[in-house]
Design brief:
Blueprint (H helix, E strand, L loop, with lengths): L3 E4 L2 E4 L4 E7 L7 E8 L5 E7 L5 E3 L7 E6 L4 E6 L8 E9 L11 E2 L3 E6 L1
Parallel strand pairs: 2-11
Antiparallel strand pairs: 1-3, 3-8, 4-5, 4-9, 5-6, 7-8, 9-10, 9-11
Length: 122
Amino acid sequence: QVQLVESGGGLVQAGGSLRLSCAASGRTFSTYAMGWFRQAPGKGREFVAAISRNDNTGYADSVKGRFTISRDNAKNTVYLQMNSLKPDDTAVYCCAARPWVISIHEYEYEYWGQGTQVTVSS
């Protein structure tokens, strides 16, 4: 029911910033909790941030204070503002959606975007 398309990835130097966007289809977008996950080279996929339909948020400890997740239900879009980027942030970032309830567990998300590459050079 939901299609997700990420954008905004790219190459940035350490200490820089990027803003990722995830555009969603569907008229029920506002009822979905949204999450960002990432997979770095040689590592498994990890939770980054999530936001509920009521704008409750959660963050991985590794990004707390540097990344901010937000959503604009009128535009069917969720964002991930990434500041003070580190080389360890290099990964493919994917957005995901699930009905109603926020979760940090990737297996609980039903819909996934294709991912966007973020590369942070030192």
